[in-house]
Specification:
Blueprint lengths: L1 E11 L4 E2 L5 E5 L2 E6 L10 E5 L15 E7 L7 E9 L4 E8 L12 E5 L35 E3 L4 E2 L1 E5 L9 E5 H12 L6 H20 L12 E2 L14 E2 H10 L2 E5 L10 E2 L9 E2 H9 L4 H8 L4 E6 L2 E2 L21 H13 L17 H13 L10 H27 L17 H14 L16 H13 L10 H15 L30 H14 L16 H13 L10 H15 L32 H13 L17 H13 L10 H12 L21 H13 L17 H14 L9 H18 L17 H6 L6 H19 L4
Parallel strand pairs: 1-8, 7-9, 10-19, 11-20, 12-14, 17-18
Antiparallel strand pairs: 1-2, 1-5, 3-4, 3-6, 6-7, 8-15, 12-13, 16-19
Helix pairs in contact: 1-3, 2-3, 2-4, 2-5, 6-8, 8-9, 9-11, 12-14, 15-17, 18-20
Length: about 850
């Protein structure tokens, strides 16, 4: 006997978030071999299992031997149990078992409700096929065509890949369950069901290209939908290709599909993808590829292209596309921008950083602390962890495979966040409605119905995606029917009191399974997708017109942004408005609209349209000095909402005078980046730097950002200053350190002579030590920003432009004893203690490995 490997992965919906389990059993012949737990990302360790040795067969005449096991997954109190029977293990092969967990319906017994999945032992290559397709699929071809000899695919733009494939689990003539499967997962499943992971790589690639082209032909020609069916393809080998819902995916097949999932076959001069008919080649023949014959040719050294041309017309081409579309009409900016690795820089790197940070809110990957468009070692670690979780080659390089998987996971996570947020807006609460609602209805009840259905479709693959239009049409009826069938209700497509009650119960049950998001970085707002190219002076087209329209709306609130003609021409006036927007919202004022500026404009436009406070405006009501009042509860990592957004906006406002405070995306999510900015603010203003916004930090932040003096900061000279440096910039820093000395007398007094000597170096080291930054006695851009920032804070305090320092910690206001006994203190000793405390906190913060 030999060995193979198994790893089990639990998740909800289309990889929206991981599901953890404390009890997973691997069984053989009724005996429990292993009892496992998952990690925080829903993954078990890699388990070694026995399998028949491959040497027992020659790989051609007989199918490779494999062993089978059963897996029981316990979902705790929130999810249904799942029993998967017949999981296959091949010699030397890793089987990946993805298990989609579904929420328990209210009242369901945890022990009694088990979803059973049976994986047939036979593969498609062991079955007869009679696939039905276009009659002229293999008509004669011109004799002078150029035959493609290698797997060098041709890029095309007229074919788009779907997000999902809707599969009818049975012969088209019988009633059966219909499931929605992500496109790439569908191809991996079909390949794992049709062929064998032990086959030669060339045979795997040739067959997988056939699988891709087959389903794309079905979708592109609307083979079933044009016949009135509500699915794209079936899993019946009598007419289509084999698909086994819930089966394991084999590692070698997983790898190949990730590399070529966007490739397909098409004949020269044809519009539709090629109907790549195939059959086992054992006991049955067909006009197309023989599966076993392809393996024999691969063993003889044939390339994938040569194998395909052996069975199909000579004018067949291998093509690929960068275009994607969803099944309900939305589109996303998905074109692969090129390989990115450590050392890469630019807007595409920053876009990737934003996506990874959003994903880190659902999956346990380390967020990227500095979203700056620079691919550093921290980003490489995050990419490697992402690749590990999603079964990609963990090399830390963002290639095509990793990019498109990032897009897929980001869209799923973002979609769930949007629906959760919309649920709060829709005010979904008990009791549910009772009004009978059916085809043709419109209005508020339909809006709520479609929202609840849309939310539930994220958890249940057998519910169709819902178009949220506010009108009850066929799409809504189909979703209602699917829901009623799932929960044993009368399937009439009419929403009466019983169906309303069941929908509400299912919604709140699903909502209760969603874990709180962990801290993450900035997110991308909802709106038109970034077009993928920089927009600057001289650009023309509809994307420019969209930005002009949005800037005009923002300019109604912020008059410094001039009104523009919406003509789609990016001229000097548009450039000036973009620069004004960038300056107002703390972005690099270069007049160029890249993805960061694009999404910032959309974010502010959305807030104005929703009637919310846009950008760095006034707070939600007067407090002391006319500032927003403290909301009454500590605001810290994990907090969300308008109060967090106001904090982020005010911190961005302070960046003009206090450049040590990093700019934030004002997304209303208090993550590590916001915590870091709060710590630095507290540090600069002499508060206890715990990263928590309590009443003291709130009042100081509101006061400081509302009383900004007209100070022009000195510009960093562009070169580091150290012992031996001379010049006016040295003199400026010496003067600033002397000002700071009024708060921190341990900093030695300096002569502002512009000579960087040992005393100046000692002063710089002392300051760096107090601030918790690298102590090297050198003034680079970070130390420069800190010196400028602290000097400005000290100057503002000296002129009475901010309230006095209160060294009581914000967090301490949770304690009645502290509230009763707290007294305002000031002075260098307590400030020094705060700095020492900060150094400890900073060292802990930096040690998180993020």
């Amino acid at each position: 006997m030999a060995t193979g490997y198994l790893r089990i992965e639990l998740f909800a919906g289309d990889r929206m978030y991981p599901v953890t389990s404390d009890h997973i059993e691997i069984r053989k012949d009724g005996n429990v071999l292993y009892t496992l737990k998952t990690d925080e990302n829903g993954m078990t360790e890699l388990i070694t299992l026995s399998a028949p040795c491959l040497e027992d067969c020659d790989g051609i005449t007989y199918p490779p031997a494999r062993d089978v096991y059963d897996v029981l997954v316990c979902g705790g109190d929130l999810f249904r149990r799942v029993l998967i029977q017949g999981v296959q293990i091949f010699d030397g092969e890793t089987s990946i078992l993805p298990v989609e967990m579904t929420p328990l319906f209210p009242g369901e017994e945890r022990e009694a409700n088990v979803e059973e999945i049976y994986i047939p032992f036979e593969h498609g290559a062991e079955m007869d096929k009679h696939q039905q397709g276009p009659e002229d699929n293999l008509t004669a071809y011109p004799s002078d065509v150029e035959v493609q000899q290698a797997l060098n695919a041709i890029r095309v733009e007229d074919i788009a890949l779907p997000d999902f494939v809707t599969v009818h689990l049975g012969h088209p003539s019988v009633s059966a369950r219909i499931v929605r499967v992500p496109f790439r997962d569908y191809i991996k499943n079909v390949a794992s069901s049709e062929i064998f992971p032990t086959w030669e790589d060339a045979a795997l690639r040739a067959n997988i290209l056939c699988h891709i082209s087959f389903v794309l032909n079905r979708i592109y020609t609307t083979w079933y939908r044009s016949r009135g069916r509500n699915f794209d393809i079936t899993n019946s080998t009598a007419v289509d290709q084999f698909f086994v819902y819930g089966r394991e995916i084999f590692g070698s097949i997983n790898r190949v599909v990730d590399e070529i999932f966007d490739h397909f076959l098409r004949r020269q001069g044809r519009v539709e993808p090629f109907f790549a008919e195939y059959c086992s080649g054992r006991g049955v023949t067909c006009p197309g590829l023989s599966q076993w014959g392809s393996q024999e040719l691969a063993l003889r050294g044939f390339t994938p292209a040569q194998i395909l041309h052996h069975y199909y017309p000579r004018d067949l081409q291998i093509q690929y596309t960068d275009r994607f579309f969803t099944n309900i009409g939305d589109s996303y900016p998905r074109a692969f921008p090129g390989t990115m690795r450590e050392g890469s820089t630019g807007e595409n790197v920053r876009y990737a950083q934003l996506m990874l940070n959003r994903i880190s809110g659902n999956w346990f990957i380390p967020p990227i602390m500095n979203v700056n468009g620079i691919f550093g070692a921290d980003m490489r670690r995050t990419v490697i962890e992402f690749q590990r979780i999603f079964n990609l080659t963990a090399d830390g390089v963002i290639g095509r495979n990793t990019w498109y998987e990032m897009i897929r996971v980001y869209v799923a996570a973002r979609r769930m966040a949007e629906l959760t947020s919309e649920g709060r807006f829709q005010s979904i609460h008990n009791p549910p409605p009772t009004t009978i609602t059916n085809m043709g209805a419109r209005g508020t009840l339909v809006v709520q119905l479609q929202f609840v259905l849309a939310y539930l479709t994220q958890f249940y693959a057998d519910m169709p995606l819902v178009v949220q239009s506010g009108v009850f049409r066929e799409n809504t009826r189909d979703a209602v029917l699917a829901f009623q069938r799932r929960y044993g209700l009368t399937a009439d497509g009419i929403v009466g009191p019983i169906t309303w009650r069941a929908l509400w119960d299912a919604y709140f049950a699903a909502l209760g399974t969603v874990p709180p998001e962990h801290p993450t970085g900035p997110d991308l707002p909802v709106g038109p997708p970034y077009p993928g190219v920089l927009i600057r002076q001289g650009s023309r087209g509809p994307d420019v017109a969209v930005m002009q329209e949005y800037l005009n709306a923002i300019g109604q609130v912020f008059p410094s942004i001039a009104q523009l003609a919406v003509d789609g021409i990016f001229g000097p006036r548009t450039n000036a408005s973009v620069v004004a927007f960038q300056r107002l919202f703390g972005l690099n004022p270069d007049g160029i609209i890249g993805p960061i500026t694009w999404y910032a404009i959309i974010e502010q436009y959305n807030r104005i349209q929703a009637g919310a406070e846009p950008g760095p405006g006034p707070g939600p009501g007067p407090g002391p000095g006319g500032n927003p009042p403290y909301p009454g509860a500590l605001i810290r990592v994990g907090s969300r909402g308008d109060d967090v957004r106001l904090i982020q906006t005010r911190l961005n406002t302070l960046n003009r005078l206090f450049p040590a405070i990093p700019l934030l995306n004002a997304d209303g999510v208090f993550g590590p980046l916001t915590e870091n900015s709060v710590r630095i603010f507290q540090q600069i203003f002499g508060l206890s730097a715990d990263g928590i916004v309590g009443p003291i930090t709130w009042e100081r932040l509101m006061s400081a950002s509302s009383n900004m003096p007209n100070i022009t900061n000195p510009v960093y000279p562009g070169a580091i200053m150290s012992n031996g440096s001379r010049g006016p910039s040295v003199a400026v820093m010496q003067g600033h350190l002397n000002t700071i000395r009024s708060r921190f007398p341990s900093i030695p007094s300096l002569s502002t002579d512009g000579i960087f000597g040992p005393i100046t170096e000692n002063a710089v080291r002392t300051f760096q030590n107090l601030m918790g930054i690298t102590v090297n006695g050198i003034i680079g851009p970070i130390t420069w920003d800190y010196i400028v920032s602290v000097r400005n804070a000290v100057s503002m305090a000296a002129t009475g432009m901010t309230s006095s320092v209160d060294d009581t910690t914000d967090a301490g206001f949770d304690s009645p004893e502290v509230q009763k006994g707290a007294a305002e203190t000031s002075g260098s000793d307590s400030s020094m203690n705060n700095m020492l405390g900060l150094m400890l906190a900073m060292s802990m913060f930096k040690g998180r490995g993020f």
